[in-house]
Amino acid sequence: MHEDDTFAHEHKTPTRLRRLYNWVVHFSETPYALAALFTLAFVESSFFPIPPDVLLVPLVALNRRRWVVFAVVATIGSVLGGLLGYIIGFGFYEFVGKPIISRYGLEHAVEAVRQRYAANAFLAVFGAAFTPIPYKVFTIAAGLFRIPVGVFLIASILGRGGRFFIVAALLAIFGRRARDLVERYFGILSIVFLALLVAGFVVLKLL
């Protein structure tokens, strides 16, 4: 079995996501909820495979009055993590960036990302920040190909912020019903979440 397939099988099954959800519920009742959300958003933008949405969803469902705070924290953490990815690509690609890209089997995608940056760097970063396409590849490549840091940061803020605020706002509107749906249909939601995550990597591999 391929290493990526093994990772997906071992770490992204509904059972493990259920454990992660329960862990999140626990943290939502402690002073560490925001720190956990910030940390996940930060590391996902440069090397970690699980997006912060998996924490954002139950946190907002449980504390919908704080949806703006959660969205802001996720956005700040993700953009700062993206900046770390940019720095890795800019000055440490051979030693740090390349192994990260190789871990996900996306070496060939770097050239495709370069072409998209050449066509429109802003839209390339924004698209990766807003969609399930692995954002980390674009953050590292942005530094590698010397994309203007201002363009990178603005596109990241709009893309990541747009995504997290939309998700949080929808959950806040539905309130308790959102939490009940998460609890009742967790198995289905886990499959959908996994499908979107895998689809993002597949799309990037097909670039």
Mind explaining what this structure looks like?
The protein has 207 residues and is mostly helical. It has one domain (3-205). The protein is 82% helix and 0% strand. The protein contains 11 helices and no strands. The protein has helices at residues 3-11, 14-28, 33-44, 53-62, 67-91, 93-103, 109-130, 135-144, 149-174, 176-184, 186-205. Helix 4 runs parallel beside helix 9, helix 7 crosses helix 8 and helix 7 packs across helix 9. It is elongated. 39% of the residues are buried.
What class would the helix/strand composition place it in? mainly alpha
Number of domains: 1
Low-pLDDT runs of 5+ residues are: 1-13
Strand/helix succession: HHHHHHHHHHH
Averaged pLDDT: 77
Largest sheet: none
What is the general shape? elongated
Instruction: Please tally the β strands and state the result.
Output: 0
**Helix count from the secondary structure assignment:** 11
- Helical residue percent? over 70%
| Whole-angstrom Rg | 17 Å
Q: How far from one another are the termini?
A: 24 Å
- What percentage of the residues does DSSP assign to strands (E)? under 5%
Outline:
The chain has 11 helices and no strands. With 207 residues, it is an all-alpha fold.
Task: Kindly list the characteristics that best describe this protein.
207 residues, disordered N terminus, mainly alpha, 11 helices
